[in-house]
Amino acid sequence: MADRLRAAIAAIALASLAGCSFAPPYHPAITPTPPAFKEAGPWQPAVATGPIVPDAWWSVFADPTLDGLEQKIATDNPTLAGALARYDAARAYLGQARVGLLPQLGADASVTRNRQSDNRPLRGSNQPDVYGANTIEAGFGYELDLWGRVRNSVAAGKAEVQASGDDLAAIRLSLQAELASDYMALRGLDRQSELLVQTVDAFAKADHLIARRFQAGIVSGIETSRSGAQLAEARAQLADVAAARALTEHAIASLVGTSASAFTITPATTPFAIPAVPLGVPATLVERRPDIAAAERRMAAANAGIGIAKAAFFPAIRLGGSAGFQDTGLPGLLSASNTIWSIGPSAVLNLFDGGRRRAELAVARARWASAAADYRATVLTAFQQVEDNLAQLHHLGDEADAENEAVRQAAATERLSLNRYDKGAVTYLEVFTAQTTALRTRRAALDLETRRLQASVRLIRALGGGWSAQHGGGAASS
């Protein structure tokens, strides 16, 4: 018996080694990559020579509050928790697929008392009507993976697990970037609020002064109404900023997995520096972004699926065996004379299925074509996002320089008009116009600063979060 088992195991090993695979040779879809990013302006630093942005990429903004909020993404965000559960499910499916690579072992035992019908077919006088049937048996089965069905199933499952892991990294990076962008918007609104509070205070003092001049008969009612309207408009803008800040704070609360009713961020007006983001060559982008890696892995899984579909055209060959004891009574059941065993191969081939297997092969090939197209689309979208945000940073930087000059000029005009008004050289209309222009340019400059910070966040996200010149792949992780 032992010799037969050893021979069976040797046959399994030889058959596995001799097996083939019908999956096509895997080659990722080719997507042309430009030698350089078109929108990189003259301000762009040289290519990085070492780690520039760490895994916690948001630390380039050097804000402890942002650091704490980003850490909550990993532990409390429900969207990320759902992605982690899907990753765990993919790993479990892979475990199921790997079962096919191993022999199936089992054992059963039964102790029964049976009665046959008096009118059974072929009834013989020597056959008892009531008898016992007791069996103890162990067996094994193993599919000889000659055509690669099982191995391709495992390869497809492994690729799906890797894709799910990359999806998890992509969702994490997306949530981190969304949080950072919302945080920049919140701090921009804090600075807008600070500006408007100062403006309301200045306008209120001016309105009080003009009211006293009106009472003294120095100015007309037109100037008092104009001053009052200017003050009311500034207060309305302040209320609008407060409403926008509340909505932004609520959005951040949801991202960090906290009820908006119990979440507050203390206002702060410390400005951020625009981080300098060095760029590598475009080819490293393809290796770095988790969504691109996920699309490539799904393409590999679809390629293995073609092999699975092709293997269905060939017979499924199994090697099986069993051994045990059988008797009509429990006493003496385990004796040598009651030994039973069987061993041998079996094959199953579907000769006619109405075209089902051909249809499944066509579906597998279509899934490969779809996965390849999705991969190319993901790569092209990645390059677009990098170019978009490089253009934003470049041109918003030029716009910010011009707007800052406008702020300086408007502030100078405001000071001169106030001096001239105090001396009675001009009417309040000139002061009103200068102050309105100064406020508009200051708010525009603050808005541009926020937009540039958000563009920096989007660029870091488009480049995969963290990188270095020798970086070989993978996304930033918190």
Give the tags.
478 residues; alpha+beta; Outer membrane efflux proteins (OEP); four-stranded antiparallel β-sheet; 9 helices; 10% strand; elongated; disordered C terminus; lipoprotein; membrane; palmitate
CATH top level class name of the domain at 21-102 and 150-180 and 243-314 and 359-462:
Mainly Alpha
Instruction: Calculate Rg over CA atoms.
Output: 38 Å
How many helical elements? 9
CATH superfamily of the domain at 21-102 and 150-180 and 243-314 and 359-462: Outer membrane efflux proteins (OEP)
| Spatial strand order of the main sheet | 1-2-3-4
Residues in helices, as a percent range? 55-70%
Number of DSSP strand runs: 4
Q: Could you describe the 3D structure shown?
A:
The chain has 478 residues and is an alpha+beta fold. It has a domain at 21-102 and 150-180 and 243-314 and 359-462: Outer membrane efflux proteins (OEP). The chain is built from nine helices and four strands; from the N terminus they run H-H-H-E-E-H-H-H-H-E-E-H-H. The protein has helices at 2-18, 64-76, 78-98, 149-215, 221-255, 282-288, 290-311, 356-422, 428-462, and strands spanning 104-115, 130-144, 316-327, 339-348. It has a four-stranded antiparallel beta sheet, covered by helices on one side. Helix 2 packs across helix 4 and helix 5 (221-255) runs parallel beside helix 9 (428-462).
